[in-house]
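To fix ideas, we reproduce below a protein record of this kind.
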Amino acid sequence: MSSISRASATALLNSVQRGLSPVELIHVPHANWPLPRSRPLVPRETQRSLQISVLDSSFNPPTLAHLALANAPRPSIGGEVGGEYDAKIYLLSVRNADKTLKPTDASYIQRLEMMLLLAQDSKSSAEVAIGIVDEPTFVGKASKLLAFLQQRLSGLALAPPRPELTFLLGLDTLERLLAPRYYGASPSDPDAETKMFASLHQFFSPEHDNARVVCARRASSSSTEAATLKLGERFLSDERIVLIDIGEAEQSYSSTAVRDALGRRDDHSWKALVSPGVREYISKAMLYTESATMVE
């Protein structure tokens, strides 16, 4: 797998941040992505949907929990048999509803480089693309990504299959997806919950974006988790949201734990939470410390 050109990645990042492009791909595994690498589509295949997983995160840094979620097979839903996704994309959101860059954080270019290193450790690295989007909401991301993929596919095949997106999330991100405060005109908007369900109907409905969410369970439950699952009960019962286990150890890993350990110069505990390539990258750039090498 090739490395990322920092000059090219910076230009594409600027294009997205300035609103000139809704989505940009920093890396694609092959020219036909998200279609098969070399095998042409047969007529039967052009009639089915193209199952694409979207690992959407701030990747600050990517951890083994991200990798376990990315490697998880597509769950069996309804009458559909699960298995592998047709293609995968690791998507960096350069605008987050909650998070802003801190002085010791990895730059976006550094995160993209670590995302590529994570993809190299993926079970299906040959099908993983790396992309960026400047959109804080999942409803907005789904709409932009679908339009982008449909346009890309139209240039790759005469009768391309329809892309269907499955967003891979941790439970903390699911909590934001199902939080009414992100959908109202203000934090005190009395119609926020109604607006949330209207937006999520567009996101999940087969007549609109037709997206799904696969969410990793946490190591331990909490009252916040219970409230989140209660709010999303209708989507869980319809299997538009599916909960999975990614491993007893991995479900307790977090990017915050890595950053905190590095911040207090605990050079031992964080290394078990990331893949070898990411571990070497963090050490070399001295990320998340006052001596960090920032890449713009």
Remarks:
- The chain has one domain: 6-285.
